[in-house]
Amino acid sequence: MKAVGEERGLATLEMTLMIAILVPLLFSILEFGSALERWLAQDAATVQAARYAGEIGGDGAEVRSLLADQLRASGIDPGAATIEIAPARVGWREPVRVSVSTEYRVAIPFLFTTTLPIRSSAISRGEVNR
Amino acid sequence: MNALRDDRASAAVTTVVLLPLLLTVLAGVLQLGALRVAAARVRAAADLATLVGVNDQDDAELSRTGVLRLAGDAADVAREYFERELELSETLLAAPSSEIAARADIVAYPSAPSVDARTGARYERPAVRLAADVPLRTPVFGALAFQPVTTIGVLAVSSPR
Q1: How many domains does chain A have?
Q2: pTM for the full model?
């Protein structure tokens, strides 16, 4: 009976050790995978916004609204994003740059919790002949 | 009982022995994900560059005849914007953006129909085609005895509507 009791204790110890190693590994894959997916979505939204900014000639409520919709559709809170459209007004064939910056919180059990900055930028060309 | 004793801590030992392998798989998965993001950025850069290039219309021809025809510098404009877009992802690249853009095969087909000598595609409208090999940094692959630089090929074509 004593040997069986020892085995039980050992199994619990082993299980604890494995959980402490495997759970952070599993969460690392899930969390970083999610961060990369978010990066892709944010990049795509930024490119769309840059194209639209070129079409309307720079910064405008329409561009910001489109960007906000695209970010929201990707599960990103547009209110927490830093958006820069420069220059605010562009003429015919002048470059316009859209930059979006957000933060993504990564939490790995037993290891760490940190915040990853996710930045996206795209450049387009003004199509409005003022 | 001996067999039981032999089994003691075997799961823990197996886990610890497999830990380097698990960590390697994790690192590889993350590098692959980062490579996918970088490849998507490069594709978006090529798409935007050809779009900007194809928007470079011959204004005089358009106002005179109403026909869309690319300006003479459409390919140069596409190259310039390809470089600008790549500059934004410079840290992901294994070569300067100017060098990658300079090596890119960018051709403007000002009038239609035309046939792409590289791809054999037939364009029914004026088009700008960009083909480039873009070297991307993959340091984790390098550490795992693979290539520290992964080159991806991009092909983008845009036509005006």
Answers
A1: 1
A2: 0.86
* pLDDT, tens digit, 9 for 90 and up, residues B6-23: 566 676 677 778 888 888
Contact A28 B22 (CB under 8 A): no
Q: Is A55 on the interface with B (CB under 8 A)?
A: no
List the alpha helices (DSSP H) in B55-130: 59-65, 74-87, 97-103
Give domain status of residue A33, yes or no.
yes
Task: Transcribe A67-127 into DSSP letters.
Answer: HHHHHHHTT--GGG-EEEEESSB--TT-EEEEEEEEEEEEEETTTEEEEEEEEEEEEEE--
Q: Distance between CA B88 and CA A43 in Å, rounded?
A: 11
Nearest Cα to Cα of residue A111 among A21, A17, A16, A14: A21
Type of residue found at B154: V
Give the pairing of strands B105-109 and B114-115.
unpaired
In this complex, the residue of A29, A95, A124 whose CB is nearest that of residue B29 is A29
Task: Give the DSSP H/E element, type plus range, for residue B16.
Answer: helix B10-54
CB contacts under 8 A, A 80-99 vs B, are: 93, 95
Structural domain that includes position A72:
2-125
A130 inside domain: no
Q: How far is CA A27 from CA A35, A38, A105, B96, in A?
A: 12, 16, 13, 35
pLDDT, tens only, A6-18: 666 777 887 887 8
ipTM > 0.85 for the complex? no
| Residue B98, phi then psi, degrees to nearest 5 | -65, -40
